[in-house]
Amino acid sequence: MGAVEAGIAMVMRFDVILTILAAAAFGIVVGAIPGLTATMAIALLVPITFFMEPIPAVGAMIACSAMAIFAGDIPSTLMRMPGTPASAAYTDECYAMTRKGEAEVALGANVLFSALGGLFGTAVLIVAAPLLAEVALGFSSFEYFWLALLGLSCAIFIGTGAPLKGLLSLLLGLFFATIGLDNPAGIPRFTFGNAELLSGVDFIPAMIGLFAVSEVLRAMASGAPDWEMRQTAMRNPLKGWGRMFVTYWPQQLRGNITGTAIGILPGAGADIAAWVSYAMSRKFSKTPEKFGTGHVEGIIESTSSNNAALAGAWVPALVFGIPGDSITAIVIGVLYLKGLNPGPTLFLNNPQAIYAVFTIFILANLAMIPLGLAALKAGTALLRVPRKLMMPIILVFCIVGAYAVNNSVYGVVLMLGFGVLGFLMEEHGVPIAPCVLGIVLGKLLEEAFVTSMIKADGQLLAFFERPMAAGLGVLTLLVLCLPLLGRLRRALRSA
Amino acid sequence: MRVNDLVLAVLVLAGACVLAGAAWTLPPIPGQHYGAAVFPLAIAGGLFLCGVVLGLGALRGARVPFVTRTWAAEPGAAWRVAATLSAIIFYMLAAPSLGFIATSALVLLGLFLLLGVRLPVAAAAAGIASLCVFYAFAHLLRVPLPHGLVEGWL
């Protein structure tokens, strides 16, 4: 029996399949609860995997993380509360579809394209794992700086408002990321002597505050009247899926490729992939004006992307034992515990285990379709609950979610502060999304920038000396300058 | 309630100056030109530019009143927003002694009544929702939610 057959046989056992399904259901529940991330779902699984054989343990983690990333889209669509940070990029778009009465269409797209994105990422993982990992390992601080800047420049175009206010929001986010001890000099920065602030501004309470609490405040201000729109039921999801698949295949493919590529880079995971893909979708769309009004195009591209990134993150994890994101960081620990030490030798000594992992990936993504459909049906039932009852309950969820991040009231304080900030920002037409991305990418950007500046002794040209850095740098500058050039051309033409 | 872009620009400019001032006081890494101050200074520079462009745009654009009453003009809206924020603060202060279930039920009951839900429905929904959230988070997900009177009986 060859390694491939052996690998498949290791998975096709009743106990393994049952474990995978149970972990998938667990992932859906945790992912759907705002404030609990896919990473947290995996972390909660670790103690349980101690009692499992290696293959079901790894299978449980893969299935759980894939489901959690998808399930994050459910509360994001229904309540404007991203269940996981990976859904934050297109939360507003999904919620706008809910307001139009198309919640099930948005969620249906999320299920299908999440599964397809995951399968694409898996295919790349199977075919190109060793080669691609090698490219990503060649990245230095210069490449990381450009990559982070590219992600941020995308953020400015995510918001539907004026780019200037998007930039303002982004700078605010970057400022919040500078708070704390985690900086190049390792000194307390902007902490005002507060011990809690030393650990910095936690991203999850900030996100819950900006997105969810601000929405609760707005609903409370208006007296939480019920939805005026009736939600259209998606009687035959397969029919809608066929049309979406045919109409939006380029977006889907682009999302898959971008997601996988970003997932492979160490440190950049599904969250960043979704942001970049949403911005790309808007940039290349024939109808960019529809973005932000409840248009499925951007959702398809970014939901494909974040699930593709999840599989992509396994490339450096399996080949070199370097985590592609926080989820694989935990999984690598479990792999070591189970004697499946990741690294090139795993491919030589235990190839059947690698093939078993690939099989689990395929199974998990296929299982996402029926499980996801069941979850979204249950989720849309939530919309029938009167909003006067829903909004206060969401507030309690927010409080508990913010508390659960570090089991401390500090999370709730952060959530409250960011809730008020988000409310005021939206009142003034300042988009929230770039601020969230600024908080996420700020540390990476600063570290890469200061390290590069020290290495280059202040010579800015060094940022373009390495071929890969030069390529990324030119791409970033193009993304930043294209809108300005377009405006200049229009001004010249009208003059 | 919203202020116009000119007021916003002044606030942003002031914020940029405060940030730059605070960043200057950060000590450098010994023997290096670039330390903890570089990045905040760059952000302050960006904010300053944003403020200038925003302010110039507001000066050139149509005259808008300094403060516009938007949602705050609706009867009771400001009161409901203030009550929601107070509910979060109440939770933070009361949960460690009262425990999660009692505090959450009080917060929910208050907000339900504020939104005009009838008392029996509000009381039942507040109790059930608090118990469900407690069970899901404290038992299934092992989040150490604060224990108080009610949790002791369970």
From TrEMBL, chain A:
Q: Can you give the residue ranges of the DUF112 domain? A: 17-437
Matching Pfam families? TctA
Provide the transmembrane region boundaries. Answer: 20-48, 54-72, 107-132, 144-164, 171-191, 203-221, 313-337, 353-376, 388-405, 468-486
Sorted keywords for this record are: Membrane, Transmembrane, Transmembrane helix
* Full protein name: TctA family transporter
From TrEMBL, chain B:
For this protein, the parts annotated as crossing the membrane are: 38-59, 88-115, 121-141
Alphabetic keyword roster = Membrane, Transmembrane, Transmembrane helix
**DUF1468 domain segment(s):** 8-146
Coiled-coil stretches are none
Keyword Membrane attributed:
yes
**Which domain of life does the UniProt lineage start with?**
Bacteria
Protein name, please? Putative tricarboxylic transport membrane protein
